[in-house]
Amino acid sequence: MRIVWKGLIAGVLLALTGGPVLADVVDGDWCSADGRHLSIRGPAIVTPAGNELAGLYSRHSFSYVVPSGEPRSGDTVHLRLLNPDTVALWVGTGSTNPEEIWKRCTPISGLAPRFVG
Length: 117
Hints:
A hairpin with a 2-residue loop joins strand 5 (56-58) and strand 6. This protein has a nine-stranded antiparallel beta sheet, with no helix packed on it. Helix content is 19%, strand content 36%. The chain has one domain (25-107). It has one helix and nine strands. The protein is α+β, with helices and mostly antiparallel strands and 117 residues long.
């Protein structure tokens, strides 16, 4: 009986600490409604045009300068994590730039095991 309780407690602690920590980061593959895609891994990004470069990374946000040869080159793209499966993206600064909503290409919540009852 004592072993069962220890296993149950360990499982609950793992479930409480494992999931949200992994999902609460801007890292991952992001897709726009019009089919564009970008990928963030720490300070590295692959832009929608396929260029790999470094940007400014924090756990909940990312920004980079659009490289030459891409539309809007020289502008700064900003991403902010809204929830585990959604980021807001805008180009430049100020309120005159429209905000876009991008979703994870494979939502973190979609990776959770499904139980059939």
